[in-house]
Specification:
- The chain is mostly helical.
- Strand 1 and strand 2 form a beta hairpin.
- The longest helix is centred in the N-terminal third of the chain and has 17 residues.
Length: 149
């Protein structure tokens, strides 16, 4: 991710860190508040910046009235997010050529349409980067001749 992430307060960092350590599932603002030692109101005040940071980093966070909050990411992506939060890197972004090859392989193997956000998450890039890479691939595909089965 080459984009600059929004800044977080210390409480915002604690909230994300706690979301990363909890088992995947819904959690309430009150539960988060208790777990990091702040008021529910503080959690609610911090949530917009936390959501903004998570989205800018390319991860999926859901707020649902009546259900709570959900960091909707598998364990491997949570580890990447933890490293990003702590200022280190778990992965190296693929070079453009390899990223295009991986994207082409994913598209050719897909049995159904794939969402842009899902492709971007898999490639560890922003949706706009993934869309640009897909456009390049789409321009090249008409030049390729496929044999009929």
């Amino acid at each position: 991710m080459s984009e600059t992430l929004p800044s977080l307060t210390a409480n915002g960092q604690k909230l994300i860190d706690r979301l990363l350590t909890l088992p995947q599932g819904w959690v309430t603002a009150a539960m988060l508040a208790e777990s990091i030692g702040v008021s529910r109101r503080t959690v609610l005040r911090e949530l917009p910046s936390v959501e903004q940071w998570i989205a800018a980093a390319g991860y999926h966070f859901v707020r649902s009235p009546g259900q709570g909050l959900l960091l909707d990411e598998p364990p491997a992506r949570r580890e990447q997010m933890r490293a990003l939060l702590n200022g280190s890197t778990v992965y190296a972004e693929l070079p453009r050529r390899q990223r295009r090859q991986k994207l082409l392989g994913m598209l050719l193997q897909a049995r159904e349409p794939m969402k842009t956000a899902a492709l971007a998450r898999e490639l560890l890039v922003s949706e706009s980067t993934q869309a640009a890479e897909r456009s390049v691939i789409e321009e090249l595909l008409p030049k390729v001749r496929f044999s009929k089965l």
